[in-house]
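A.,

Following up on our hallway conversation. Structure tokens first:
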């Protein structure tokens, strides 16, 4: 074990709470800075892939989270004409592979309690916007009021896709996506049993329904309802909410009970997306994790999972190296191939589902479901869905990606059939 160090973690989201918990448990002194007065989740629900579940197991939280979530075994997508675009089952990877749909409040609550029990400190209501580097190689976070926080051996930025600190690491500018979405938590009426279900009209419209379990043990079961929407169209969507209800029911009649019960557009949270990758994700005594380091669209459902993987791999590297620079290089190398693939794949896939293109959705509808008839392509699709890909023709065991010992061959090549 390395000597105890001082770590400053910026952002009490998934990645920040996870890495803060692991470092505090390892005997380091951790202070977490959160811009909100009370740490809270943002959004409705998400999917925890086998990779994210493996990371939660490292935190000792997998069982508690699964108990609140909804097991997801299948991705199923249809066009407005009834053509199947996707019908993929995790069962093709074996019985121990599945996803969990989870309310963000349930996941955040489990991570928040773990951090509170870890011995770490939190300073809420303090937005960190800069980092002052010291001559001794350490750094002091600086908040929006110009106040310097305690000096740390390393500042870990887990503040998300709108990070104020990433410019200190990378000169690249985030590229906004044309489409975003609106999300709401609604009662789960059982129309997508153990499945993420989607409906598409070309690439202009995408409706999704994801069972997400309960936000806490005493609550009713919920689902996340989402609608693809350009940020520039948000105000018009709010004004024409009644017409939107009719459109949704016309495209997906089974949603009628859910849509009719919505009080109005205020039930939804708006989301917009950017594409950004920092390579490498560190500079001096500052390292980026999660969406601060690698933001993309949620089309492949990997955001929270990648943040959890970043957290466990970084914590391992920092606790295993006496030199912080060496630890950061180890962390970046361990995460490079997985991050690179999903950044590339997310950018590639998004226009097929969220764009104004006329040709891409035609190609999607003709090819995507048929592609799985080829066994080698089917396996690649399943590995991609489960978050296991590390390259065009390679994948990794979810336990290995989360820093543990692989339960099977870590790297697989197409020449060996997976």
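Then the amino acids I'd put at each of the 418 positions:
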């Amino acid at each position: 074990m390395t000597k105890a160090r001082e770590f400053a973690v910026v952002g009490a989201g998934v990645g920040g709470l996870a890495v803060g918990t692991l470092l505090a448990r390892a005997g380091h002194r951790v202070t977490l800075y959160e811009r909100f007065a009370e740490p809270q989740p943002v959004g409705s629900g998400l999917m925890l892939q086998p990779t994210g579940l493996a990371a939660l197991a490292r935190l000792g939280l997998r069982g508690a989270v699964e108990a609140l979530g909804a097991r997801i075994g299948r991705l199923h997508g249809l066009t407005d004409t009834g053509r199947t675009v996707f019908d993929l089952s995790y069962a093709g990877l074996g019985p121990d592979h599945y996803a969990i749909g989870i309310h963000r409040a349930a996941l955040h609550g489990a991570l928040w309690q773990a951090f509170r029990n870890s011995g770490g400190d939190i300073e809420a209501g303090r937005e960190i916007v800069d980092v002052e580097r010291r001559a001794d190689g350490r750094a002091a976070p600086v908040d929006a009021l110009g106040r310097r926080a305690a000096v740390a051996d390393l500042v870990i930025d887990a503040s998300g896709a709108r990070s104020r600190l990433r410019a200190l690491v990378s000169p690249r500018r985030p590229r906004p996506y044309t489409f975003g979405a609106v999300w709401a938590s609604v009662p789960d009426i059982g129309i997508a049993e153990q499945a993420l279900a989607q409906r598409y009209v070309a690439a202009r419209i995408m409706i999704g329904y994801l069972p997400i379990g309960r936000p806490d043990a005493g609550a009713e079961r919920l689902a996340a309802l989402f609608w693809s929407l350009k940020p520039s169209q948000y105000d018009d969507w709010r004004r024409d909410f009644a017409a939107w209800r009719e459109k949704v029911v016309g495209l997906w009649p089974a949603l009628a009970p859910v849509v009719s019960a919505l009080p109005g557009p205020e039930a939804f949270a708006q989301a917009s997306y950017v594409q950004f990758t920092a390579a490498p994700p560190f500079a001096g005594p500052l390292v980026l994790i999660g969406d601060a380091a690698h933001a993309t669209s949620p089309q492949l459902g990997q955001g929270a999972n990648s943040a959890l993987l970043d957290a466990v791999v970084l914590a391992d590297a920092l606790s295993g190296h006496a030199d912080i620079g060496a630890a950061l290089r180890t962390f970046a190398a361990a995460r490079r191939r997985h991050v690179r693939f999903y950044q590339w794949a997310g950018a590639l896939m998004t226009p097929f589902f969220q764009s104004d293109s006329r040709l891409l959705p035609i190609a999607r509808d003709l090819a995507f479901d048929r592609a799985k008839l080829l066994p080698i392509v089917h396996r690649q699709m399943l590995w991609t869905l489960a978050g296991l890909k590390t390259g065009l023709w390679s994948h990794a065991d979810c336990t290995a990606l989360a820093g543990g010992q692989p339960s099977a061959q870590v790297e697989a090549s197409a020449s060996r059939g997976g």
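The longest strand covers residues 205-213. Curious whether your intuition agrees with the design.

B.
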